Amino acid sequence: MSSKTFLAIDMGAGTLRAAEFEPTADGGVRLVRFGVKPLGLEGSSERSRPKALEKAASELFEEVGFGSKTGVVAAPGFQVLSKPVRIPKVDNTKVAQLIKFEAQQNIPFPLEEAAWDHYTMGVAKSGEIEVLLSALKSEAANGIIEVAKARGVNIEMIDTAQAAIVNAFRYNYSDLGGCSMVLDIGAKTTHVLFFEGEKFFFRTINIGANSITQEFATETKMRFSQAEEIKLQKGLVGLGGAYAEPDDPHEAALSKIARQVMTRLHVQVNQTIQFWQKQQGGSAPERLFLHGGASIMSYLPEFFKEKLQVQIEYFNPFLGMEIDQENVDVAALEQVGHTFGQLTGLAVRMVANCPLEMNLMPGSARTQQELQRKKPYFYAAAACFVAAIWAGVYFNSAVHQAQEAEVEELAQLSPKYERPARDLKKTISEVDEKIKEADQFNKWISDRFLWAEVLKSIRVSMIKTENSMKAQYGKQVGVWVAAFNKSDADEEDVEGGMGMGMGMGGMYPMGMNPMMMGMYGMGGMGGMGGMGGMQQGGAPPPAGGGEPGNPMGMGGMYGGMGGMNPMMMGGMYGMGGMGMQQGGGKNQNVVGSPKRPLRVVCKAIDLQTINPTANITLKTKLVANIKNSGLFDYNETKWGPVTEDENVLLEDVKADKSEENKARLKTLIFGLDIVLKEPIELK
């Protein structure tokens, strides 16, 4: 076995793949051997995944006989968080500091618990620097390293699945003109990638082939493994229309389920195409390359050709690579080659400079690597140290006398430095207190991401309610937010203590036409700068305003004084003022708890003229949609009448007898008490 060979390992959600490569004389790379081992449903579960990986790796290495002692790994897409951000164009000495700040705001777990890296993509038209952040929990990264270490393989780099596909495509299809799109359909996630000239963009969608298997298993009451086997044998995407339904009941059921799942995927893909064109300045895709385990399902190419109206072909990851014909079973490789894009991308990283280079090795592992590289120098230093000890024997007496003299001198100096030492200790204690305060402040900032999700869920619930009511009564229905604040927020909570108000006043003007909701934002983040929510892969928002990765319009990556993103003045949402007061208050303010729920005052079109019970139906449906969104406590979230203070919101329009305000008064107002599944403690 050549000492130059290395392993590329793809630890996907549903399958473990490994391939051994060697560099060629002309600077290329050659495939020497490969192996594939399924992980099943256990590979997608955080709890069962470690054991499943260990078992599959042990079996795979024994079957294939890999001999390389070094390797690179692609972490699965569902464990990696990637997000593009923008930072102001500043002096080069400050870029690293700004990137770290953005990482702290956008990675939803502490940086000390993360293995993360960034890639500078270029300069946007606005002059801002575009940066791609990628992060993996250190626990997951260390688990990857340990699985390989148990097989005698030293991992030199952890790449992302998305970056590996980018590098593989550039390596194999560098001469393509126009815009190309790659659709990598994995077990749990799907990666959508765009390539045009030197520019590229990707997004990860949380829809994969396991969705088909799981829905089929549920419908037929089979085990997941049994359903997966039938899917691999008989799975196809139903084309509908004039196409006849299969006679086999399993095939028929699978075809319908597969079409439903692929239709949901197509909706997300279509939104991503629109974002690529509008926000990234890309062109419409001219061709689509299919990749991943689910890509060979029967009639899948026909499905996407019908939906997207583009040329369809399969991504060939070995187009620009050599294959060892003596050791590699080419026929077997043809059966799985459509899933090897990550492996070939990893191989390219080992022999050439690549367009996108990430390394999610945790800090402890990188330190260990540095120690290994420096080990020869340590041995030399140790030898010199031993020699010095032997030489020192001859001078032991003189050294001892010198030490005694030094101790006596230090004893004389000790009183001189006692007071400065006490002052330093006091200063250190004060600094520690400031650090604790800063840590609490950072926690508050991280909790702000939840507000974006809360607002998004409320908005989506309102849209669902409007649509269902319109379908039921055949009339245009509108429901919107009049006010939003923390319920029961008495002055004691913040007067003498440390608290945080999430007031969202002036969300929409009273009496406003609900069709004009998207024209209004809320106030900026007072004094702190807006911070966007985290969303993988720069995903575009659902229908409505907002930028990708920041669907609620909270200022996102731009920060700025007051937190208002100047590009988002017409966005769907901006957040109200976020204030802080410090002191030693007696109460702890728990936001979103049963005792202190989030209070939302809603307005809606009065439907009593249509049906006497329509208003009750609307409120009931709205609450049901909110409860089912996943963020809120099902039993505690409820609607009720507004308070006297809240009803004051209508007084101004009641006093105005104009025809315009008469129309505005044809509304109802009601309150919502919303309880979070995980209330936020602000203390």
- Total strand segments: 22
Number of continuous helical runs: 17
The coarse silhouette is globular
User: What proportion of the residues form beta strands (DSSP E)?
Assistant: 15-25%
Largest beta sheet: what is the strand line-up?
8-4-1-2-3-14
Rg (CA only): 30 Å
Mean pLDDT: 76
Helix content range: 40-55%
Structural class: alpha+beta
Low-confidence stretches: 370-383, 487-587
**What's the main sheet like?**
6 strands, mixed
What key phrases describe this protein's structure?
about 675 residues; alpha+beta; 6-stranded mixed sheet; 5-stranded mixed sheet; about 40% helix; globular
Describe the overall structure.
Residues 370-383 and 487-587 have low confidence and may be disordered. Helix 5 (209-220) crosses helix 6. This protein has helices at residues 49-64, 92-106, 138-150, 161-172, 209-220, 224-234, 249-278, 300-308, 330-336, 341-351, 363-393, 396-473, 492-495, 614-627, 644-647, 651-655, 659-664; strands at residues 6-11, 15-23, 29-38, 70-75, 81-87, 114-123, 129-137, 154-160, 179-185, 190-196, 199-205, 287-291, 311-314, 322-323, 479-486, 499-501, 579-581, 589-591, 598-605, 638-640, 667-674, 680-682. By secondary structure, it is an alpha+beta fold. Among the domains are: 440-522 and 582-682, no CATH class; 527-575, no CATH class.
Layout of strands and helices, then pairs:
Layout (H helix, E strand, L loop, with lengths): L5 E6 L3 E9 L5 E10 L10 H16 L5 E6 L5 E7 L4 H15 L7 E10 L5 E9 H13 L3 E7 H12 L6 E7 L4 E7 L2 E7 L3 H12 L3 H11 L14 H30 L8 E5 L8 H9 L2 E4 L7 E2 L6 H7 L4 H11 L11 H31 L2 H78 L5 E8 L5 H4 L3 E3 L77 E3 L7 E3 L6 E8 L8 H14 L10 E3 L3 H4 L3 H5 L3 H6 L2 E8 L5 E3 L1
Parallel strand pairs: 1-4, 3-14, 4-8, 9-12, 12-13
Antiparallel strand pairs: 1-2, 2-3, 5-7, 6-7, 9-10, 10-11, 15-19, 16-17, 18-22, 19-21, 20-21
